[in-house]
Design brief:
This protein has 11 helices and 12 strands. It is of the alpha/beta class. S-adenosylmethionine binds next to helix 5.
């Protein structure tokens, strides 16, 4: 099920109906409406409120209900790893729910909850492709076993966990594929909890959810706790909001918690193939996580070049459907992007920065290929802007 013009129109109607209801409640504010919009992105919510003539009469509302985690000097979260971390309250509530459901937990792509469980003394195995979580969540305690691998591959871990928890990227094929891993590693009478995308996250989401729930019913009975999961707005999403008309909201995103009481884990239909997309090399400099495409298009005439429609280098969207993504060769954890015309020059510059160097120290002699002074100067200026 993909988005079609018909589903776009139905979606718009459903979203508008919801927004009108929320905006007419006593005490309504822009921030409350966005939090209540079941996944619709804040910029779209604001656009629709404006079209409906409702935006102007609504105050922005309270700026922040939660303090973002202390990430100063630590590697930031990155959109290419789908890194939306839960708020501390949500982690606490999940630790209680999962710890009560069984004495060992398998966590798939949920580092904050795995660490929370381990801190509470619950033996937990975390499978995740990104080892950087250890640098963000200091003091990772003993009862946590970390399996560093991609979840599109068979998992190298024991089986028959009484409880499995997963928070896959918010697409049906990812959820189905991660669910297949969960089913291979859960006990026959165990329980699986799945963080699931809400129905207004994109036009096809409501249909995708009901198809997903039909798939899940092969395995066991299912119950859904709407809006049970709250996520911090990561710096990459904050950057998008800061470049828009919507006020920044530190905790707008909510997901649903699906609980599956397993009957027959082998009954899950085979998942579709998950498109893994391009490969990216990761650099960390001064807290910024910078991803550089392994194979760049090379269309840009400069080593590093701006992309049309990305003012100040900011990609003003976190949607997989955004066409500008195709031109992105370099992508930072502040959602700043650029095209790359000379990959080796940019990679060598990033290596130098990763080793503690600064942009002002870049000299032609530092590169293995020849680069003239004016080109290097432009590269330095652009790198500075991209890494801001
Ligand atoms: C999907 S989110 C869930 C994070 C969760 N809300 C939390 O607070 O812990 C991101 C996590 O999934 C991991 N991840 C994304 N795609 C993955 C994949 N294909 N295989 C393994 N881990 C993956 C990321 O590295 C990241 O840690």
């Amino acid at each position: 099920m993909t988005d079609t013009p018909a589903s776009e129109t139905t979606y718009r109607h459903r979203l508008d109906e919801r927004l009108e209801r929320l905006a007419n409640r006593p005490g309504a504010t822009i921030r409350r409406v966005v939090r209540g919009s079941r996944g619709a992105f804040p910029t779209l919510v604001h656009e629709r409120l404006t079209a409906l003539g409702l935006a102007e009469s609504l105050p922005d509302g309270e700026p922040a209900r939660v303090e973002p985690p202390d990430t100063i000097g630590k590697p930031e979260l990155h959109p290419l790893d789908f890194e939306w971390y839960f708020t501390d309250d949500t982690v606490r509530s999940l630790v209680r729910t999962l710890g009560d459901a069984g004495d060992r937990v398998l966590c798939l792509g949920t580092p904050t909850v795995a660490v929370g469980l381990a801190r509470a003394g619950v033996p937990v195995t975390l499978v995740d492709r990104n080892p950087l979580f250890r640098m963000r969540l200091d003091d990772v305690p003993e009862p946590l076993t970390f399996v560093n691998q991609d979840l599109t591959e068979p998992i190298d871990a024991e089986t028959a966990f009484p409880v499995v928890f997963l928070d896959p990227p918010w697409y049906p094929e990812h959820t189905h594929s991660w669910l297949a891993s969960a089913c291979r590693h859960v006990a026959a009478d165990g329980r699986i909890y799945v963080a699931t995308f809400p129905p207004l996250v994109r036009p096809a989401a409501a249909t995708q959810r009901s198809e997903l729930f039909d798939t899940i019913r092969h395995v066991g009975s299912l119950s859904v706790d709407d809006d049970a999961l709250v996520y911090y707005t990561p710096p990459f999403e904050r950057a998008v909001l800061e470049h828009s008309d919507v006020p920044v909201i530190s905790d707008w995103r909510r997901g649903d918690l699906v609980r599956i009481d397993v009957r027959d884990p082998s009954a899950l239909p085979d998942p579709p193939r998950v498109e893994t997309g391009s490969d990216w090399e990761t650099f960390v400099t001064n807290g910024r996580v910078v991803k550089l495409r392994t194979t760049v298009s090379g269309a840009a005439s400069e080593p590093l070049a701006p992309i049309d429609g990305c003012e100040d280098y900011v990609l003003p969207s976190v949607s997989r459907r955004d066409a500008r993504r195709n031109h992105v060769d370099l992508w930072t954890s502040r959602n700043r992007v650029a095209a790359v015309g000379n990959r080796s020059v940019v990679a060598e510059a990033l290596e130098l920065l990763e080793d503690g160097g600064s942009v002002s120290e870049l000299r032609p002699a530092a590169f293995s290929v020849s680069i003239d002074e004016p080109t290097l100067e432009r590269l330095a200026t652009r790198l500075e802007a991209v890494l801001a």
